[in-house]
Amino acid sequence: MPMLSPNLSKELSKKLSNKLSSKLSTIFSACSVFKRNPLSETLLGIDFGCERINAVALRALPAIADQPTAYQLQAMASVATPSGAIVDHQLHNMAQVVDALKQLRRMLKVPTRNVATAVSGSSVTTKIVHVPNSLPVEMLAHHMEQEAAAHIPFPLAEISLDFEILGPSELHPDRDKILLSAARTEHVQARVDALRQVGWRAQVVDIGSHALARAVCFLLAPPPEQRVAVLELSAESLTFMVISQGEIIYQRLQPLAADSEPATLSNQHYMAQVTSQAQRQLQLFCSNSGQTSPLQLLLCGSDTDLAQLVPRLSHTLGIAVQLPDFSVMFGGEPHHYSEAPAFSTALGLALRRSSPCLI
């Protein structure tokens, strides 16, 4: 997992929660947020989808020496997103979204108010930049603002920015890799406002693909040398990414062509389109990176027929394809978590308290 470089981590944890520039504001939580939200408290992961709004509530169990943190799954719940209320990952009808969230809270029956949620889609941009590790902390925010002006395709006045030091650059030992993230402020604020109207408090606003990658690493715990591909489906788009050593090394959001038939896997045209796009993205990863194909792909999404796609994808791509299995971490039988593929991003959000952001 990425770690803060020693020379800046202590000071940065104090500085990140402050607005060091009027144009810099926080997307991700700073370390101080989690000091106010002890690890033992329950955290809700709320994933806003165009088809459904999904929630996972996790409570961290008491730590055991030399053992990774274990979690208790307290609740999972999902409500249908009203038609047209969320389009292209953005909230279009606040009143309908709030009504759906109220229904979701009644279903969860979890007393915590602490929520982690995410922004996704074309309004979200991330980029890795390299900066001298000798740069004083008080100058770092200003430098990040300059980087954002050069790399982010939105006016600075309209976006929220955040950055996180991931560690020393492999190519330049005197520089640090920094994850620069940006999203339109109105889209971040819309989620925060919707949650507030239900009585929830957004402590973290993450990026959807980062949360999904976090869940994948938690569920699979792949060995460092193994790359894992992830394919997440929705009615509007598919997200394809490749994870290596806990980091996203390739990521694409691919819109799916509209069709007169429902965008479900029972629609053969939709299934063929998904299969073709997955094959294309895998080929692009291999050709662009010069690396061989991952040996494993995790398939996520809310379609009830997702299992039907597993053998078709495995045959077409020539790699092992599987669905998320929550029983590995939370006990019980796999059939007890038949809807797990739809809850993967929400799971990753609920894990946000103790896991760093992924590239």
Automatic annotation (TrEMBL):
Superkingdom, taxonomy of origin: Bacteria
Residue ranges of domain SHS2 in the record: 43-216
One Pfam family this sequence matches: PilM_2
GO terms under biological process: cell division
Organism: Oceanisphaera profunda
InterPro entries, sorted: ATPase_NBD, FtsA/MreB, PilM, SHS2_FtsA
Signal sequence, start to end: none
Gene3D superfamilies in the record: 3.30.420.40
Protein's recorded name: SHS2 domain-containing protein
